[in-house]
Amino acid sequence: MAKKNKVQRPKARKPRGFPDRSGAELVTERLMLERIAGVYRSYGFAELQTPAFEYTDALGKFLPDVDRPNAGVFSLQDDDEQWLSLRYDLTAPLARYVAENMDALPRPYRRYAVGTVWRNEKPGPGRFREFTQIDADACFAPAPHADAEIIMMFIDALKAAGVEDSDVEIRLSSRRVMTGLLDVIGVDPEDQATAGTVLRAMDKYDRLGADGVALLLGEGRKDDSGDYTEGAKLEARQIDQVLRFMEGSDMADAFAGNQAGTEGAEELQKIVSTLTELGYGNRVKLDPSVIRGLDYYTGPVFEAALTFDVENEKGQVVQFGSVGSGGRYDGLIARFKGQDVPSVGCSVGVSRLLTALASKAAFEEADGPVVILALEEAEMPRYHRMAQALRGEGVAAEVYLGGAGMKAQMRYADKRGASLVVIVGEDERKAGQVTIKDLRAGKEASQNIDSREQWTEERPGQETVGEGNFVEAVTTRLA
Prior knowledge:
By secondary structure, the chain is α+β, with helices and mostly antiparallel strands.
């Protein structure tokens, strides 16, 4: 007898760093994004959608890693043998769009964008290759007033999303200030190796403190795991200057007449003064440890940090940290047109912010639909009419279609996140009634019930109403 060939079936698996997402998580995210977008629109920003793919050369030198087609981005060649790459942020496509439509756009040009971005990087805990961003940018908008407005709008957006005023701090610094500091201590800002090592060391000030940063500015540092990080090899005098700058309250004192540093510090003070006058000053802090994308930004840079305590994966109590950032990038559009276009923007870390709101219970989890149990097959048209009546009042509703018994239907409603189920069995139908079961209220009440008899008598979270009144009863409970 001939042996049957084994059927080769693909293994059901998803690529690393590309999460599956469904149900309440997506509904909650969309609600949060709409609240943020509503703030952006209230400031006069209009939405722009750009394609997922851009020509790779349009992304330019600002790739996350080195500038070859598959480093940091996902790329392919089209039928013209030109390289295309999935966008890794929403700002590079904006720069291309502005350059392409420069003469037709209003000045300033104010846009916001919501979309998926992709990073060809090693995935890890909380680090994905595909995620959502929501950005707002103003082009042809010079400093410092456009910067102050973006920061003010950023704070308002976080508040609309559910962040308490007392829980957010905007930490503000400047690329020009950092350039001035490097000049003062005798490091060439164009020396990518040394200047980059100095700035990366400064970026670790919050985590390592002055002693740890001093080691990284000097010969190097060995961490707790035994890994050794090579230092910037600065002299003691230079290290002392950097640390005094990091610890000082007045940035201008650090520059001793250096033009770039002095102008950068003055620009920051103007931003802070404007925000203070408008009632936002108590949420803004000058912080020289904010070192962000210094090949990208040309002026003020900032990040939004949430200051409440959470427990990390090691069980340690730490501050939650950054949920978004932004800054000024006057040179990005110049790649296409050869002239600087003063621009500033902000970007919210959507996944980080959702995690923060969940940890503070600041954003309610979206309810699933009201589930109408299907207990009699002959009554299916009745059940569907009931669902239609609820939808007519703006209530999401569905009829159970799985063909199982009542217990299984109730388990299904629970898995769907339904707060209410509607029950019309034979007894209810004959009496012209509808039973509404509030699953969440029932769970809460059941904690205080001691016996089956008490449960049967009280039926917590449950009411029976006339069939003609069931829509009003459902909407009242949901409200």
